[in-house]
Specification:
Layout: H1 10-15, E1 23-26, E2 30-34, E3 42-48, H2 55-61, H3 63-79, E4 87-90, E5 106-110
Helix pairs in contact: 2-3
């Protein structure tokens, strides 16, 4: 059921404290932690504490927490001092788009020139 913790979900286990993570921020509805396989000098994940399979399900099921994810992404960008140089927010939705953990999350990437991609504007 949407919103309920899933026993087989990696991110639900991180929220529950069953799997360690380098937590940077926490609100009532979100948890922010460093990605264990960073793709940029700054690579942080912001997740809802409640389980939603992807960003679309989160937006439909709890728009307030979906908005909170974006607010927290901006806050962590400021904390990590990547606002001036620029950063990317990425939601992968579905296996075909590269989603490997089916719990909604946004990647906050910054701190490197590799973030520029000519095909993305």
């Amino acid at each position: 059921m949407a919103g309920e913790p899933q026993s087989d979900c990696l991110f639900c286990k991180i929220v529950a404290g069953q799997i360690p993570a380098t937590v940077l921020r926490e609100t009532d509805g979100t948890l922010t932690f460093r990605d264990i396989n960073p793709q940029a000098p700054t690579h942080v994940l912001v997740i809802p504490k409640a389980h939603y399979a992807n960003a679309a399900d989160l937006a439909a099921g709890d728009p307030a927490v979906a908005a909170e994810l974006l607010t927290e992404a901006g806050e962590v960008a400021a904390d990590e001092k990547i606002v001036e140089s620029g950063y990317r927010l990425i939601f992968n939705t579905g296996a075909g788009a590269g989603q490997t953990v089916f719990h909604a999350h946004v990647h906050v990437l910054g701190g490197g020139t590799s973030l520029q991609h000519p095909g993305l504007v």
